[in-house]
Inverse folding.
């Protein structure tokens, strides 16, 4: 029976791929970029497909406006090894009293949705069709690991030596560098105790680097180990205490061990992660937290820009044909999203969008060159503020208010449309933001959002 | 050069001051919705609104987000001077028609005076009756002129609306777009309830263009369909008449009449009630479009037309004339819609191809072609018999 059901499952999957009825969506975003919130909001709205009031909340989603959607539902997971995205837990958190943001992701998860819609065809007239959606979630911390796929241990070490010149100015790497100096790379034995201590200090430093706002924090599992906490595969370091070329020629035992662990990390963890989440995707959402990038200062801003450039190289873009769709799908459409747009007033969305466009310029060129379509937009997946008019000293401002009585209304200030030293300094000094609490999700309502209809229209519009 | 000059600093607002302003504003807004009942007394009660519970407060905030008041538009509309700048017009007193009219008017006044005077000399009762009759005629004329001017002004107003919409599509906000769409809805007689359903969908962060597009796809669709259907129907009728009529001058007269009627009907669908002078303005505009603006539309169409005429050659002369007349009539309809539709139609809304296809598949034309086919067969059979 199980063999039969397995075979039939694969057949159905094959058929749905062949007939272009399955879409795999990857949400690429660094940690705290709003991935979990976005997936929760997407699923929440997809579940109300077919609801007559949907066109009111998603008017720019053509399928909702034309009333061709019939239903949306979550399918039971067919992949038994991958946990299902905790949608219900996220909804519970948002509807709790007081509401909480959904827990940030600490592992890979997936959710499969089934959408039924009416379709008009010349041959069959009105008929009901089905579209399957696979959405993957994973911790943003792990995303940068994709970079390691191209780097051997030697390259990794050289990369780190270079990175230290930049990051070292902002976050002092002294403790782990000093501890690491105690390691004897030429000895025949390994001082396990010192190695562990150095790795621990390295991890601590890495966390600080991430907190400061840098995005290229490698290896990602050092910050968020998931189930691998304490395993030896996470006990390695880049060699930064001199030129690695000198020491490899001397046949160092410690270096061999470090290299072995690094290779294991790359092969077993990073490749698997890539294969699971990114190797077979049709559509990509790239979430960029522009405000966070600005707040981190010049180093962090350019670091995030570079990150996206490096990351995008790992994805295959282009239009699919029957063969590529089945065996090596390419990303046909990518959308760059400036997330957390509810942190700025509506009149600043134009600036936020042009800032995003300036950040993704290189990636966009690459995507276009490979024949894919891309778009950019501002979005708030779970909208926590409202924008209202306010007169101050005879000038009309749009200011933000939250549903909470104790939050003072505020005007966050301008977002610079492009990066410049002056605008960055101005932004850092004068931009006001508060820790936003999620609005309470009332029973029966959809999550409040901003521009989700545009996103849905871009992602699914051509399929529905 | 410091480019931070344009950037604004963030600030937080004293909660009390803010609430006072927002609740005041939103209440004002609410009252505007309720037929503008706002009085100073109402305002006094509204200010005490701090104690409202949270849910109510939220709903007030919602209302505060989008205000559709006619004055609220921040867009500056193009004024008439600007239009005149674009198209310099000759002064009215240089027109011979004007002087001719003035002469006629003077003669008519003299004649009227002479007539009334003559009536008074006959008897005072007769004189009074004639004088009253003339007065009535005079006032009727005045009234019609007034109405005619109204129609012309309406057309001018619609031009202004078009310009405003163009500007909003380029850089307007949702708020401005709502103001203009409300105006449009009133013009095209969209019911309030339908408009409110549409307005409910608009969030304050939408771009002006998105709101206008949504308005077109939600509330203009039916009107457009009516206009397109009308063009197709009238064109098909023209085609049939031309194909069947034996007299060329009758075709021409009929086609002219029907075409003028079609233009007027189209303008009515889009909310312009034309008087006589308004109609003349409208015809002038449509024909001007047909000559000047039409060139670009026709150029894209030329290739298809060549193929079309080749195919038409095979048909009998009368039928070919009929179909050509129908297709030309669709062009006129196309131009008429382009001239009066408050939002310039996009390619998906209206195209010559769409209208042509509609006409050629119209039952009447189909019947004509099929009939021709039958006749052709009969003729072939007759030839075979011979």
């Amino acid at each position: 029976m199980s063999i039969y059901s397995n075979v039939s499952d694969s057949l159905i999957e094959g058929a749905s791929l062949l007939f272009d009825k399955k879409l795999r969506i990857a949400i690429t975003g660094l940690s705290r970029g709003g991935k979990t919130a976005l997936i929760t909001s997407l699923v929440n709205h997809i579940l109300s497909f077919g609801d007559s009031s949907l066109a009111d909340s998603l008017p720019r989603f053509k399928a909702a406006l034309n009333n061709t959607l019939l239903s949306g539902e979550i399918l039971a997971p067919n992949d038994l090894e991958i946990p299902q995205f905790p949608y219900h837990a996220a909804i519970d958190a948002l509807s709790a009293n007081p509401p909480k943001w959904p827990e940030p992701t600490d592992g890979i998860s997936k959710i499969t949705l089934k959408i039924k819609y009416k379709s008009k065809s010349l041959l069959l007239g009105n008929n009901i069709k089905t579209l399957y959606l696979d959405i993957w979630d994973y911790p943003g911390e792990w995303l940068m690991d994709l970079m390691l796929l191209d780097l051997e241990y030697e390259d990794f070490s050289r990369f780190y030596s270079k990175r230290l010149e930049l990051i070292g100015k902002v976050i002092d790497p002294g403790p782990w560098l000093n501890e690491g100096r105690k390691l004897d790379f030429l000895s025949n034995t390994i001082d396990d105790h010192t190695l562990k201590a150095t790795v621990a200090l390295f991890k601590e430093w890495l966390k600080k680097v991430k907190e400061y706002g840098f995005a290229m924090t490698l290896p990602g599992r050092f910050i968020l180990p998931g189930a691998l906490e304490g395993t030896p595969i996470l006990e390695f370091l880049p060699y930064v205490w001199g030129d690695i070329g000198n020491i490899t020629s001397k046949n160092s035992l410690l270096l061999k061990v470090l290299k072995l662990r690094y290779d294991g990390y790359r092969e077993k963890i990073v490749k698997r992660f890539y294969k699971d989440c990114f190797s077979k995707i049709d559509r990509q959402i790239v979430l960029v937290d522009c405000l966070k990038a600005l707040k981190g200062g010049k180093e962090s801003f350019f670091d995030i820009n570079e990150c996206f450039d490096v990351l995008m190289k790992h994805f295959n873009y282009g239009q699919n044909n029957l063969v590529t769709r089945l065996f090596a799908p390419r990303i046909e459409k990518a959308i760059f999203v400036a997330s957390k747009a509810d942190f700025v007033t509506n009149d600043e969305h134009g600036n936020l969008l042009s800032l995003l466009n300036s950040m993704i310029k290189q990636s966009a060129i690459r995507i276009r060159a490979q024949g894919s379509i891309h778009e950019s937009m501002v979005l708030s997946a779970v909208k926590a503020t409202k924008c209202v008019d306010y007169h101050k000293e005879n000038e009309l401002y749009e200011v933000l208010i939250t549903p909470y009585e104790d939050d003072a209304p505020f005007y966050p200030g301008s977002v610079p449309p492009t990066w410049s030293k002056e605008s960055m300094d101005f932004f850092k000094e004068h931009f006001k933001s508060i820790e936003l609490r999620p609005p309470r999700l009332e029973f029966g309502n959809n999550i409040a959002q901003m521009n989700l209809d545009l996103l849905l229209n871009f992602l699914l519009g051509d399929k529905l | 050069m410091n480019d931070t000059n344009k950037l604004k600093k963030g600030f937080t607002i004293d909660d009390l001051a803010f609430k006072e302003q927002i609740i005041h504003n939103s209440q004002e807004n609410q009252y505007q919705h309720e037929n503008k009942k706002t009085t100073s007394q109402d305002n006094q009660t509204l200010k005490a609104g701090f104690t409202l519970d949270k849910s109510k407060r939220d709903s007030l905030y919602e209302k505060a987000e989008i205000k559709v008041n006619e004055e609220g538009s921040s867009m500056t509309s193009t004024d008439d001077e600007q239009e005149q700048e674009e198209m310099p017009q000759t002064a009215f007193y240089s027109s011979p028609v004007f002087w001719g009219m003035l002469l006629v008017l003077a003669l008519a006044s003299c004649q009227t005076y002479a007539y009334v005077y003559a009536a008074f000399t006959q008897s005072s009762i007769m004189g009074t009756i004639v004088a009253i009759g003339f007065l009535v005629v005079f006032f009727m004329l005045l009234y019609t002129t007034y109405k005619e001017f109204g129609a012309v002004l309406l057309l001018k107003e619609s031009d202004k609306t078009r310009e405003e919409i163009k500007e909003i599509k380029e850089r307007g906000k949702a708020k401005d777009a709502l103001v203009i769409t409300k105006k449009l809805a009133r013009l095209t007689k969209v019911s309030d309830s339908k408009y409110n359903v549409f307005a409910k969908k608009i969030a304050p962060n939408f771009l002006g263009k998105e709101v206008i597009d949504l308005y077109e796809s939600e509330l203009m669709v039916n009107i457009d369909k009516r206009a397109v259907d009308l063009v197709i129907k009238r064109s098909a009728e023209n085609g049939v008449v031309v194909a069947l009529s034996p007299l060329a001058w009758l075709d021409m007269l009929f086609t002219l009449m029907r075409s003028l009627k079609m233009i007027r009907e189209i303008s009515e669908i889009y909310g312009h009630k034309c008087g006589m002078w308004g109609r003349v303005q409208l015809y002038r505009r449509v024909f001007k479009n047909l000559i000047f603006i039409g060139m670009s539309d026709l150029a894209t169409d030329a290739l298809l037309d060549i193929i079309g005429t080749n195919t038409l050659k095979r048909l009998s002369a009368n039928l070919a004339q009929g179909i050509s007349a129908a297709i030309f009539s669709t062009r006129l309809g196309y131009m008429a819609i382009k001239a009066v539709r408050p939002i310039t139609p996009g390619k998906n809304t209206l195209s010559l191809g769409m209208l042509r296809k509609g006409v050629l598949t119209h039952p009447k034309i189909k019947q004509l072609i099929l009939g021709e086919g039958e006749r052709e067969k009969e003729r072939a059979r007759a030839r075979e018999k011979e």
